[in-house]
Amino acid sequence: MKEEAFQKLSSQLKSGNNQGLQDVFEETHSYCVRTLLKKTQCKREDAEDIYMDAVLIFRENVVADKLTHLTNLRTYLFGICWNLWRDHHRAQKKWSQTESEWERQILMEADKQGLDLEEEKEMLKQRLTMVKKALKNLGEKCQTLIQYVYVEQRPHKEVALLMGLANANVVKVTRHRCYQQWIKQVEKVQMMQNGK
Q1: pLDDT tens track for 154-167
Q2: Is the pTM of this model over 0.70?
Q3: Burial environment of residue 81 by CB neighbours within 10 A (0 to 12, 13 to 18, 19 or more)
Q4: How many beta carbons lie within 10 A of that of residue 31, not counting itself?
Q5: What's the CA gap between 10 and 1, in Å, rounded?
Q6: DSSP characters over 38-91
Q7: How far is CA 189 from the centre of its chain?
Q8: Separation CA 81–CA 87 (nearest Å)
Q9: Per-residue pLDDT reduced to its tens digit, 18-63
Q10: How far apart are the C-alpha atoms of 82 and 158, rounded to whole Å?
Q11: CA gap 145, 165 in Å, rounded
C-alpha cells in the first residue's frame, strides 16, 4: 500500500467510514491466512479468526494514531496475526500446565486420604460444582472475562476489543481482580457446603 493510499484509508477510518477495510481485506487476507497456516499448522478456522482480529487491531491502531505511516500492509498485518497466534498458543500451554497441576494435586490429596477411583471422581465432581456455583455469583463482566481468558483462552488484546476495554493491560488488571473475587466466592461456597 502506497503512502497516499494509506493516508486516505487513515482519514476514512478516523471519520468512521470502514469501507476502506474491504481493500485491506482483498490485499492481505489470502497472504496472511496462507502464511499462518504454513508457519503454525493451526486450523483454517483459527487462522481466519486470528486474521479478522488482526484487521480489527489494525483499524484500532490507525484510529488511535498508533500507526501513522505504513511501508508494507501485508507484512504489518501478518505481524499482528503472528503475535495473536503466539499469545494464544502461550495461553493454551499455560492453561494445560495449570490444569494438569490442579489434577495432580487432587490425585495426590485423594491418594493421601486413601480414596479409591470412585471417591476421587466424586471429589472432583464436588469441586467442579463448587467452582461453577462461585462463578455464577460473580458479576456479568467478570463471568464474561473469565470465560474469554480461562475457558476460551483468548489473547488479552482480543478480550480488550471484545469487552470494550482500553487495552491488554486493563484486561490483565481486571482479570486479576475477577480471579480474586472468584476465589473468595469458591471459599464462601465451600464454607456453606461444610456447614460453617
Answers
A1: 899 999 998 888 88
A2: no
A3: buried
A4: 16
A5: 12
A6: HHH---HHHHHHHHHHHHHHHHHHHHTTS----S-HHHHHHHHHHHHHHHHHHH
A7: 27
A8: 10
A9: 888 888 999 999 999 999 999 988 888 888 988 988 998 899 889 9
A10: 13
A11: 11
